[in-house]
Amino acid sequence: MTLLNKDHFIELDRQDPLAQFREEFELPEEHIYLNGNSLGVMPKASKEKARKVVEQEWGQGLIRSWNTADWIHLPRRVGDKIAGIVGAAPGEVIVADSTSVNLFKLAAAALRLRPNRHKILSEPGNFPTDLYILQGLERFMDGKVHLHTQPRQEILDAIDDDTALVVLTHVHYKSGAMFNMAEITRKAHEKGALILWDLSHSTGAVPVALNNVEADFAIGCGYKYLNGGPGAPGFLFVAQRHQAELEQPLSGWFGHANAFAMSDTYEPAPGIERTLCGTTPVVGASLLEVGVDIMAAADMGRIREKSLKMSELFIALVEQRLADHGFGLATSKRPAERGSQVSLTHEHGFAIMQALIKRNIVGDFRAPDIMRFGFTPLYVRYIDIWNCIDALAQIMEIAEWDRPEFKKITAVT
Length: 413
Ligand SMILES: *Cc1c(COP(=O)(O)O)cnc(C)c1O
Hints:
Largest sheet: 7 strands, mixed
Bound molecules: pyridoxal-5'-phosphate
Mean pLDDT: 97
Low-confidence stretches: none
CATH superfamily of the largest domain: Type I PLP-dependent aspartate aminotransferase-like (Major domain)
């Protein structure tokens, strides 16, 4: 490859069809934010929305706002909008709880749909909460089901006639590696198993076509690429064909067919609402809607194109400018196997990332040696990629990372 130069990046920004979306976000001054895969940035409209929800809807409307501000339909309304982003139909997605809790509800529900099977299949190194939740479920089933993990290259062969449910994260949180959703879903169904996809690092980052691949269940996160705000509620998907028979264990009153009849007996709502448990976190779900609206207005094909181009350029610059500094590449160079992030390995990764953050270039670190750089095409510019690598090269050349201040371990890396 010919040597890349700064002008090339400036030109790419000039031609970028997504460039105007950056205006919708409030980034701190002089920051390069490459951590939207962990916590997305704040849409400017979120401030106004927060004020409206708190001052008017809560402050003035009080209890009336369940009707007058339509709080009661918030989970479904935002869910329908997310459905459009992940290739689902209206009525198949709802906003609820956290990603972890949604996994518990749907995994338990899926097991009831395959009562004579004993295996849940996942991969070692999946996101910790996914494995922990499945381990908790396993304990509660008193030996009736067991969690089996198999390395990703061997997943297809590990799906067998005893597999009730396959639970995989579409884009891996650490490496950014992406599974072939269509192929694995097809294999699961061939074997009579159900599949649940965790879309935490996919939604708003890569094209997802849940109904095209005939996925059964999915869960995802509101505060990453959807820019819903810290601790935003998660969402879940249940394919229409499973809804009527779906029984989930957290049968709270918001999932009741008629919550305000105040009956003593639980009767599940007919559709996706039966996956709800308790009262909607109204403030969080309202802010999530702002992020979702922006994402829904953007073209996913263009997002993917820019994301791949950015990660490709990032990798090329690492090779061009950092070749002698001990970095490894933990992300696949094949576009079909890559989400919207690039992960580098380095034995001093933590300190190097701290030195970058000190310069207001924000990525993050995952033990033991992974430096993650997330590319969020709606607000990251091509020039940010150039400047990030430029700073990284300086940090390495003068061993800036080797200062004691960059080696203090923080609670959240
Ligand atoms: C971020 C993430 C979660 C988050 O779960 P919470 O319940 O919101 O804490 C779950 N799974 C994966 C794969 C994630 O990346």
